Structures are given as C-alpha cells and as structure tokens.
Amino acid sequence: MLFDHAGDKNKIKQMKALNLAYVGDAVYELYIRSNIINKHPEAKVRALHMLGSSVSNCTFQAGLLEKLKPLLSDDEAAVVRRGENAKPHSFPRNAPKPLYIEATAFEALLGYVYLSGDETRLTSILEAIEKEIEKMIV
Fold first, then answer.
1. What is the rounded distance in angstroms from the CA atom of residue 111 to the CA atom of residue 83?
2. What is residue 4's predicted lDDT score, i.e. its pLDDT?
C-alpha cells in the first residue's frame, strides 16, 4: 500500500460517501497514471493526459462499476448504494447526472477499500477491471 492508512473499519463505514469518493478518486487516478506511464514511458505529457482522460471519466467509471457489482461483498455493495444516493453539490456540465452518480459510487468503493487497508481486496478489484482499462490505454 502507498501509506500505512488502515483505519477503524467502523469509522470508515460511517464516513460520508462523498468523502470516500474523494479518496477513491485519488486511488483510481494514481492507478491509471501508473499504468499509462509504464506502458508509454517516452510519451509526451499531453498524450499521457489524453490516455488518462479516456478512462477517467464518468461514463467509463460507471461501466466499470457495473462489471464489479456482482463481485462485491455486502459491505462493499452497501458503500456503493450510499455512493449512488449521495448528493453532490454540483455536477459537471458535460456529464449525464446518472453516470456521474455511478462514477461517484465507483470512487466511493475504491476509497472504502483503500482506507480499510485491505490491499489484497483492492488489488483484486483493480485486477477485475484491468482488461477494460487495458483496451483503452494500448
């Protein structure tokens, strides 16, 4: 894991879904950027950004969440539901609201698993979506 961050699981379960999504967004971005730079170490930053944007958008993330839902534990599914029911204060202009909400739930899931300190579970979730990501960042 990047840092020793495992916290009290009960506290993590009680965190606001948007706070979990805040952390999950960072986890996902670091995962994506690491994959891209490993595959394209000589690429220019603009090209790296374009590749990252292809998999770091609400449409793509919502699709990833749909693929993950059958694989989730009860606790993880509960976090996803909380993420889907969260009330963001604003929505991007270029993103359909339902997809943005699903992407928020996806990020909340990653934040929850990361903060729980279960590196094995986080790895298995990321491996479950890796093929979809690989298709986009070839």
1. 11
2. 52
**In sequence order, what are the residues at sequence separation of 6 or more whose Cβ sits closer than 8 angstroms to the Cβ of residue 111?**
19, 20, 21, 22, 23, 24, 25, 27
Q: What does the alpha-carbon distance between residue 11 and residue 28 come to, in Å, rounded to a whole number?
A: 22
Residue 40: phi and psi, rounded to 5, are: -135, 65
Q: Give the whole-angstrom CA distance, residue 48 versus residue 125.
A: 23
Question: How many beta carbons lie within 10 A of that of residue 23, not counting itself?
Answer: 20
Residue among 8, 25, 74, 75 flagged as catalytic: 25
Among 1.10.1520.10, 1.20.1290.10, 1.20.120.610, 1.10.10.60, name the CATH number for the domain at 15-136. 1.10.1520.10
Q: What is the CB neighbour count within 10 angstroms for residue 53?
A: 12
Tokens of 94: 């270029």
Tens digits of per-residue pLDDT, 9-22?
A: 888 989 999 999 99
Q: CA-to-CA distance for 88 and 47, rounded, in angstroms? A: 31
**94 backbone dihedrals φ, ψ, rounded to 5°:** -95, 10
Active-site residue, 4 included: no
